[in-house]
Amino acid sequence: MKTGEKKIKMPTTGLSDFPELICGGEGKYVDKTELLYRLATPTADAQLFISRPRRFGKSLMLSTLKAMFEGRRELFNGLALDSLPWEGWERPTPVYSFTMSGANGGTYEEFRMALRGLVADLCRQCQSKYDRENTIASNFDGFLKAAAAKSPTGKIVVLIDEYDEPVSKFLDDLDTLKKVRSDLHDFYEKLKVNSGSIRFLMMTGVTKLTKLSVFSGLNHLTDLTMSPDYATLLGYTPAELDGALRENVAAFAAKNGMDFAEAKKTLLSWYDGYRFSPKSKVKVCNPVSLGKALRNAEIANYWEATGRSTMIVNRIRAADEIPADLEGIAVDPMELDVCDAETMPLAALLYQGGYLTIRDVDEDGYLTLGIPNNEISKSLHDGFMQCVLGRSMENWKERQILMRRELRTKGVDTLLRKNLKAAFAAVPHEWKIEDEKEAKRYFLLFMKLIGADISGERQSVRGRADAVLADKSGIYVFEFKYGKTADEALAQARGKEYGNPWLDADLPVFYVGVNYDPERRGIDDPLVEPA
Questions:
Q1: pLDDT at residue number 392
Q2: How much is the pTM?
Q3: Which of the listed ranges 135-139, 208-212, 421-425 does the model predict with the highest average pLDDT?
Q4: Exposure string over 1-12, b if 16+ CB within 10 A, otherwise e
Q5: Which domains occur in the chain, in start order?
């Protein structure tokens, strides 16, 4: 940084402690306190639940609520809450905040020990006795009663992060899962029993396991997960990129040789696209991924760095799907709201995990889901390729780098004649490619993985091209055939003038005919001709 140059505060990417973020002075907090005030005011329902994918700022939100109820007004200087008639300024309420990740264990016995330790620690905080002769749930009940009795307001605030974490550890072990969720049901039910002593309760998690007995003990909670009023509570909106984050986007643009509009469009294409309410069209960015892109001044797959879900990739493969098939899934909203751990519907699993989002809502209320952005698309495609081809990620990354380099330096012809044929040859024999649709699915998958600018089923006046790829040498309009010839594919593309929508572009347009030979289980030499 040059002398005299103003240092720009960066949005937090890992710090979830609100006081530390504010007092540290270097991190930027994008103000959500007006929304938090709205949901926490006495007229609001004070027993709340919200689910969001990982890395969406749930822990930071709970830390902010804790500071609000404790009345730490100095932390909110300049934020919306500071000018509002917040009760905490006059009457702070004791806050008990904990994460259920602290009740994890690799076995049922370890889970029980961890949960017992968590409750014992809560008892120590309010100076009440933990009775080892009683059950864990009974001790939790005793803690809630004792904490409320000692509170100057007669009530307490309870904030619970990652409520579903103990359950998620045993999704592949149904016998243990049933015991864990039975214990958690008894534990969480005490919150309902003592709801009259709880001024405010907020629980967060990644999933909403409503068919589990866990959640049946919490049926008094108001679920904000799909509420249009709180669709922007977690994550950054495009408007916040123009507002609170404007200087960060401008700095990103300057370092990457872009103007502001181009930088914003690029960032949104990679990290935006999450729509959490059928009744609101507003979308938000993943705050951690966007924050890292702004901090590093570099577009990258930051979601992947936090750990891919092997379970999700395996479920996609088991369903005989590939990532491209996930666009346009139609579901009833209830399918996303009810998620049984024993069966875990794929659409619900992907939606709750952040791999799919709401694309559209029809007049009957049914939802269309799709992949939210480039970052998630890359995560899904990379994970799927590793799963399908059985390659180590390191070897596949090396192959991707080589293929992308050859695409830039040697053009599309080398890509088609060498790399595409090699990719098809690597598909395991048990993954049958029995028709044109299957061949096309894999083609689009391979092209996406090497970073090609490609989109499927582009419309012209006389029909749709199977795919369109653009690079610096031109625009390539593809037609696929299965068990025929590349000549026939080329003739159809030319005869139906699939390339017409791009003829007024600055780049030359080419037709490409591709044929998959089922006998050889591979691609014939593609034919490329000017339009």
A1: 43
A2: 0.81
A3: 135-139
A4: eeeeeeeeebbb
A5: 31-225 (3.40.50), 310-379 (no CATH), 392-530 (3.40.1350)
